[in-house]
Amino acid sequence: MKARFVAISWRDLAVSFGPIVLLAIVGVWLAIWLIHPAPPNTITIVTGPKDSNFWNTAEKYRKILARDGVTLKVLTSEGSLDNLRKLSDPDSDVDIGFVQGGVASGIDISDLVSLGSVSYVPVSVFYRGKTAVTRLSELHGLKVAIGMPGSGSRVLALSLLKANGIEPGGKTQLLDMGGDEAAKALVANEIDAAFLMGDSASPPTMGKLLRTPGIRLLDFSQAAAYARRFSYLNELRLPMGVFDLGKNSPERNIRLIAPTAELIARDSLHPALSDLLIEAAREVHGKSNVLQRAGEFPAPLEHEFPISDDAKRYYKSGKSFFYRTLPFWLASLVDRTVVILLPIILLLIPGLRLVPMLYGWRIKSRIYRWYGALIALERGVTGHSPEEQARMRAQLDEIEAAVNRMKMPLAFADQFYVLREHIGFVRSRLEGST
Description:
Elements: E1 4-6, H1 10-34, E2 42-46, H2 53-66, E3 71-75, H3 80-88, E4 96-100, E5 112-120, E6 124-128, E7 143-145, H4 152-163, E8 173-175, H5 179-187, E9 193-196, H6 203-211, E10 215-217, H7 223-229, E11 234-238, E12 254-258, E13 260-266, H8 271-285, H9 309-317, H10 321-325, H11 328-379, H12 386-405, E14 407-409, H13 413-432
Parallel strand pairs: 1-14, 2-3, 2-4, 7-8, 7-9
Antiparallel strand pairs: 4-13, 5-13, 6-9, 6-10, 11-12
């Protein structure tokens, strides 16, 4: 019988590739399981009352995100506290929101992260009077508007007033009134003072009060002390004449205290959307104004909320290469494709080196199997009856026939012929023993 040689054994090659293919499949499955899905093209932001600072800012974000095909739905609310409650509610459809510092007490924020602080939110206390007021304790016994329920203005006002010995139910009338309503009541001399902040007052309202005769902005003489006692507060200074140099408004330097407004998100926010939102925040909040320097915001200032890992990565190194160079939709596709292909490549590089070893081991194991049978026959060559000898020769013929039927790659022809020589050697010993 003639041996059957082939250039390569495709069956053996396929079996040798099997473990590598299996590893690649497992790697792809793990990548798909761990990878983020495609970023949604619609997200919802909760802001504050319509025309408030937060609402106006969200409208700017909406236009910026639209450039990349992302629709930002702007949802109004009662203010920071209401925003935080909606964000922490797993049944709400809110993804992100503006939250003023100092309002998180008593709310489960374990599933929320910060994308960074985007601006200062000055505690603006307007009051009516001829004499200057520099301490909140001087509001004792007056009618004070502290903001509407659900607003960060009200929560912060109550905390600051409590530190000055003023609490609900005392001689000071604390009124649930904010925004334009509080401003009109102050102008109409129906109340004595009003807390107005970013989530409850529009810029036109603030500007109108600053220009109204008889109404002043409280100068916090204890600003440094507030910043020390409340970790989320910062001390700010408004220089004399910063609003109007000609009219010298304000007439003197004014000290303010201010928490920061943070862009808060659920920890499930897609990393690509996190980058887009911080980019929008840089465009909207990165310029200088009377309260901040250029480039001061957005900033990864950690107060009550942890900064998200994606935000930390962005502040450290910016957007990834694909998102810097490609359109958003294409970058998202490429980014996810790379994540899937990378484990395959990492597994195939060492795996392909193993394939020749596995292939050779499979072919050699087929040859070595017959050596075991030959050794057993050779050990029993002597000391047997003619019948036993005939049976052993028949067994050797079967081994030789089986070996000749094997499909052997040409690369292993030398080992094949060595095996046939050994078969001949055993046959000669059998014949010599008769």
